[in-house]
Design brief:
A hairpin with a 6-residue loop joins strand 5 and strand 6. This protein has one domain: P-loop containing nucleotide triphosphate hydrolases (Rossmann fold, 3-Layer(aba) Sandwich). By secondary structure, it is an alpha/beta fold. It has a 5-stranded parallel sheet, sandwiched between helices. The chain has a two-stranded antiparallel sheet with strand order 5-6. Bound molecules: adenosine monophosphate. The site of adenosine monophosphate has 18 residues, from helix 2 and helix 3.
Length: 219
């Protein structure tokens, strides 16, 4: 199965990508996570992307495409992958199309997480992460056992720099301008399925099951 998860920041893409990857044994390719790992490891790519990410802007297409093609080629070809937060511009979507044609990968479905602004802001402002492993919590919806402390490593949880209110606003503007046009792009290709991003996790998973069954994608 080869899926793309499309939607604004805070729509629930990461949470659902992780669940789907476990269930169907897929590789989770989250562009933002890969960038953050590169920043933590202080790689050349991480150094190039850091400032842009912290300001809530998009990293240039060429850098993202090159990074994601490498990741897709390394993923298990048999079981497939979930692209989470990629593509995010028309340029990236066109480059991904050309890559898929070249390498004989076909996307099965693009899930568009349709999520309202108040839910997005609540999810992003309550999000806390482990700065080393990237594990994600939410102060109310997915709290750690001890307030502010990671269940797995005991480290202090932090708020992502780009989850500060001003940067959230910027990221939502960038989403509307750069990423929303992808909804039409994939609709025209017959790949788009809308999903109700405001739903809680179990309800939304049940909704995804129905889509997979309808498309004969359940494995
Ligand atoms: P995310 O974790 O998906 O919210 O991504 C965090 C940040 O990484 C974004 O705000 C961008 O700065 C950068 N980023 C992630 N994915 C992409 C992409 N497909 N294109 C450009 N920049 C990206």
């Amino acid at each position: 199965m080869k899926l793309v998860l499309l939607g604004p920041p805070g729509a629930g893409k990461g949470t659902h990508a992780k669940i789907l990857c476990e269930r169907f044994n897929l590789t989770h390719l989250a562009a933002g996570d890969i960038f953050r790992r590169n920043i933590r490891e202080n790689t050349e790519l991480g150094r190039k992307a850091k400032d842009t990410i912290e300001k809530g802007h998009l990293v240039p297409d060429d850098l993202v495409n090159e990074m994601m093609f490498r990741e897709i080629e390394n993923a298990d070809r048999k079981n497939g992958f979930v692209l989470d937060g990629y593509p995010r511009t028309i340029g990236q979507a066109e480059a991904l199309d050309a890559f898929c044609a070249r390498t004989d990968y076909n996307l099965d479905v693009v899930l568009n997480f349709d999520t309202s602004e108040n839910v997005i802001i609540d999810r992003l402002s309550g999000r806390r992460v482990n700065p080393t492993t990237g594990r994600v919590y939410h102060v109310r919806n997915m709290p750690p056992k001890v307030d502010g402390i990671c269940d797995e490593t005991g480290e202090k949880l932090v708020t992502r720099k780009d989850d500060q209110p001003e940067t959230i606003k910027k990221r939502l503007e960038v989403y509307e301008k750069e990423t929303q046009p992808l909804i039409d792009f994939y609709k025209k290709k017959g790949l788009l399925q809308d999903v109700p991003g405001d739903y809680d996790v179990p309800e939304l998973q049940a909704h995804l099951n129905q889509i997979f069954e309808r498309l004969n994608l359940a494995v």
